[in-house]
Amino acid sequence: MGISHRASMHGTDLILLSRYLTEALWGITLSEMRPVLTCPRCDSVVREPSIWTSAYHCEQHGGVLPLRSGLSPSQEGLDGVLQGAEVPVWLPWPLPPGWLVTGFAVAGDDRTGTRGCSVALSGPNPVGEGPAEMMLISEEPGVGLGARFAGLGGPDPGSQFAKGPPAGSVEFANHEFPVWNVEARDRAAFAGEVSGNWLWLVLWPDTAGMLMVEPLQLRDLRDPGQDLDLPFGAPSPQLPG
Ligand SMILES: [Zn+2]
Question: Is 207 within 8 Å of 222 (Cβ atoms)?
């Protein structure tokens, strides 16, 4: 009796130990797999949904879509962006000479799908010397990713948007869409609207805005039948994280 009781206690200990080890291993795996989720409008780490709310929460901006920016500049990274993308994934194509795709950031989760997306590019400044950076952002109104890269309080281009003539245009599917200059410090920023979504173009330094002198030809990488051999480069310094 005593022996069998001791044996059964021993069995329980083993079960508890094995459960503890399994949870510990899961913890390690989950923390390795899960990227840090931040606010699309600032750098704050967001609070995850709870039983009280299904939204991610930023201390400063309230309910937001979580931003993932650790997607590598590679075909695998792009495949991750295209999965569940509810907004266009814009790319200038052909790329300006010497330019490379240098990363991605997406706002949204499994529940919402991707409602904001940013494609980073790096290349030679067409004016003067040195490198330049470009960020092409596509987002539903209110996400705030474009305004963040433009350095605005956001989340959208603001009340002065489109008050004057457009500064340039982009071309997509044989249509031309105007873009307007957005006041931004230390960079050139343009915004327009395509099919109800914001399209933002942000360039560093501001002289790289010269790339918009001619209409920029865009592709939506979600469209089927595109077999583009994209050149990838080192991750853009403009991407958070
Ligand atoms: Zn925030």
Answer: no
Q: Which residues surround ligand 1, an ion (CB under 5 A)?
A: 39, 41-42, 44, 58, 60-61
Three-class SS of 107-144: EEECCCEEEEEEEEEEEECCCCCCEEEEEEEEECCCCC
What length does the chain have? 241
Is 80 exceeded by the pLDDT of residue 187? yes
Q: Which amino acid is at 78?
A: L
CA of 66 to the centre of ligand 1 (A): 10
**pTM, two decimal places:** 0.84
Cβ distance 100 to 130 under 8 Å? no
As given in the structure block, the two tokens for residue 100 are: 């490379």
Quick: pLDDT tens for 87-106. 999 999 999 999 999 999 99
